[in-house]
Amino acid sequence: MKAAVWYKAKDIRVEEVAEPTVSDHDVKVKVKWCGICGSDLHEYLAGPIFIPVGAPHPISKDEAPIVMGHEFAGEIVEVGDKVTKLQVGDRVAIEPILAPNENGEYKDEKYNLTELLGFHGLSGGGGGFSEYTVVGEHMAHRIPDELSFEQGALVEPAAVALHAIRQSSLKAGDTAAVFGAGPIGLLVIDALKAAGASKIFAVEISDARKGLAEKLGAHVIDPSQMDAVEEIHRLTGGGVDVSFEVTGLPKVLNQTIHSTHTGGETVIVSIWESEASIQPNDIVIKERTIKGIIAYRHIYPAVMELMKQGYFQAETMITKKIKVDDVVDDGFELLVNDKSHIKILVSPE
Asked: Read out DSSP for 129-154?
């Protein structure tokens, strides 16, 4: 079957690979749509980050070259002998977290925090940029009839956004700032709306992304036109309650921290390619809090329920659909060079 395979940074090849087989608690999924994630871009530009190189991942038992793609949905075409929760024909969104599991269940309550953390489509085991892939039944969630496969491919990034809000201290009526209005940043804005934020500021320089942030109800601030921190403090009378860093840029991290008021909180959502420095006194003297989040846990059903209510909509996020043969030039390279695009979906056929 055809698949997009990562060999090294800037070297992803579409080639023929062996079709996977199921066993025990596995399900085989015919992939319909798979999104290109910011994490995929990090691996393409500066990897390996999550991709195992030189030694196999302890759960997938694979190492590079590996099939990529972890934001995907599809239809179950085969189930293992011990699968009890799913059946052939089920439409599913895949939770790609690789963590200790047994008998079709994750073993740990906070499975996303395991030291063995990996991702299907980043850490081996197959991936969504292929015609078929096999995952454990604990990783597959039925898609409600009201939602399309395209919507199903957005569940994974929306789960990141919703988990970030849930792990923050934000309460209904609080103010928030989102630094970076890329795919995750826009989904964070929508999740903040669902959580009842009274005012949401989006800090972004891309005209297209500013427009989408405004469409979602955020007050947009262009840091190339003004001092974003000063403007947020002016408009809020001292800073927001909670800020979210969604760019992975050191300079922006400091802006995100300074945008909060005394006692405020900053949530770091980004995956970083390099180190970032901060002045601890900016936190100490203001009694601010900084928190990091990774991925999500126990959240896919809630995301899909919010989708049914109109949040995290595909028509807002998806700006292009392509075939897997074109995943490098019309996918990765386009996202790197054209910030008007938000989410590009890939079909394996």
From this structure: SBSEEEEEGGGEEEPPTTS-HHHHHT
CATH number among 3.40.50.2300, 3.90.180.10, 3.30.1020.10, 3.60.20.10, domain 2-154+312-347: 3.90.180.10
AA letter at 225: Q
What amino acid is encoded at 140 in this protein?
Answer: A
Select from 314, 306, 167, 298 the least CA-distant residue to 244.
167
What is the fold, at CATH topology level, of the domain defined by 158-292?
A: Rossmann fold (3.40.50)
pLDDT tens for the chain, residues 1 to 349? 999 999 999 999 999 999 999 999 999 999 999 999 989 998 999 899 899 999 999 999 999 999 999 999 999 999 999 999 999 999 999 999 999 999 999 999 999 999 999 999 999 999 999 999 999 999 999 999 999 999 999 999 999 999 999 999 999 999 999 999 999 999 999 999 999 999 999 999 999 999 999 999 999 999 999 999 999 999 999 999 999 999 999 999 999 999 999 999 999 999 888 899 999 999 999 999 999 999 999 999 999 999 999 999 999 999 999 999 999 999 999 999 998 899 999 999 8
The domain ranges of the chain are 2-154+312-347, 158-292
